[in-house]
Amino acid sequence: MEKINIGYLYGNLKLSKEDQIFLELAEKKNINLVMLNIANDMGEEEIEKKAEVCDLIFNNTAGELAIEVSKTLEELGKVVIENPKVYYYTENKWMFYVKCKKNKIPSPKTILLPCRLGGVKRELVKFNGWPVVLKKISGEQGEFVEKAENVEEALVIIAKFWEKSVDRAPIIAQEFIRSKSYRVTVIGDKIVQTTLKDGHGWKATAMYSEKLESFEMNEELEKLVKKIVNVSKMNICGIDFMKRGDEWLAVEINAEPSFELIEGDTEMIISEVLDFLKKKFEDKKIKPSLSQDKSFQTL
C-alpha cells in the first residue's frame, strides 16, 4: 500500500520527544511525515515546495507564524488540521464564551473590556464581581492571565498588559471560580484522555500544577464535551473545565493540546491522532467532529 504523505508543522529547533514519537509511529502506520519546521528559518517558497507532496497538513505548534503558514497552505488547496479559522474564532477566549452563551453551555461570566482605562473602570464597576480574572483573548500557559481583587488593582494589571504588547490587545474580565482544572482531550469522536490539574496556586494550567492525574467523567460532562466539539467544529482539541459546586463550567478550548500531560499516555494519544489523520485522508474530506450521526466514544 502506498504511503500517505502528511505535512507536520512544528516549531522546535530540534525534534522534541513528542516529534520523535510521531515519526516512529507514523512509520509503523505506513505514513510519511513531511517535516515542516517553521522555527528553522524556512522561507515561504521552501515550505510551499515541501507541502506540494502532502495529502494533508497537521499543525502541531502554536503561535502567529504557524497560523499564517496554515492559512497560506489552506489557501493553496491543502486540507489543514486544525482549520486556521478556529484560532480566530473558537480558540479565541472571548469568542469561546460567546459560543457557550449562544448554545447554553455553562461557563464563567465574562465581559469584553474597552481599550481605554476609563471605559475599563466603568465596565468593571458594572460587572461587580471580585476577585476577577483578567486575560488577553489569546495566549497560552497562563501568560497574560492575572487576578485582581478590586478596580484599582485591575487597572494596574491591564496597564502592564498593554505595556508588554505592541498594541492594546483585547482583554476579558472573567468571574473567578475557586476550582481545580479539568482537561478533556478529544480526537475526532473519541475522548482519549481526562486530566485533573491540581496545585496550590489559583492558576489552573499544567505548568502551575503540582499533580496531574486522570479523573472519571460523569454523564453530564460527557454531554457537555460532545456539545462543545459539535459547536467548535474542532477535530483535535483540549477542553478545560472548572466546577462550581456540582456544576461543570467550560472555560476554554485549545487546538494543539499537549499530548504529554500524563506520563504513559503519550504514545496512545499520538497513535490516535495518526489514525484520525489517516482516516481523514481516506474519507477525502473533512467532516465536523462528533456529528449527530456518530456515536460518541471514550477510551
Write structural notes for this entry.
- This protein has helices at 17-28, 44-51, 64-75, 85-88, 93-102, 117-127, 151-164, 219-232, 266-283; strands spanning 4-10, 31-37, 56-59, 80-81, 110-112, 132-136, 145-148, 171-175, 181-187, 190-198, 211-213, 236-244, 247-254, 297-298.
- The protein is an alpha/beta fold and 299 residues long.
- It has 3 domains: 4-81, Rossmann fold, CATH 3.40.50.20; 109-175, Dna Ligase, domain 1, CATH 3.30.1490; 181-298, D-amino Acid Aminotransferase, Chain A, domain 1, CATH 3.30.470.
- The strands form 3 sheets. Strands 9, 10, 11, 12, 13 and 14 form a 6-stranded mixed sheet that branches. Strands 2-1-3-4 form a 4-stranded parallel sheet, sandwiched between helices. Strands 5-8-6-7 form a 4-stranded antiparallel sheet, with helices on both faces.
- The longest helix is centred in the last third of the chain and has 18 residues, at 266-283.
- The protein is globular and about 65 Å long.
Q: Could you name the key traits of this structure?
A:
299 residues, alpha/beta, Dna Ligase, domain 1, D-amino Acid Aminotransferase, Chain A, domain 1, Rossmann fold, 14 strands, six-stranded mixed sheet
Largest sheet: 6 strands, mixed
CATH-wise, what's the superfamily of the largest domain?
ATP-grasp fold, B domain
- Could you estimate the helical fraction of the residues in percent? 25-40%
- From the alpha carbons, calculate the radius of gyration and give it in angstroms: 20 Å
CATH class of the largest domain: Alpha Beta
Number of domains: 3
CATH fold field value of the largest domain: D-amino Acid Aminotransferase, Chain A, domain 1
Tally of separate helices: 9
Structure class? alpha/beta
Shape-level CATH architecture of the largest domain: 2-Layer Sandwich
Spatial shape: globular
Strand content: 25-35%
**Number of strand elements:** 14
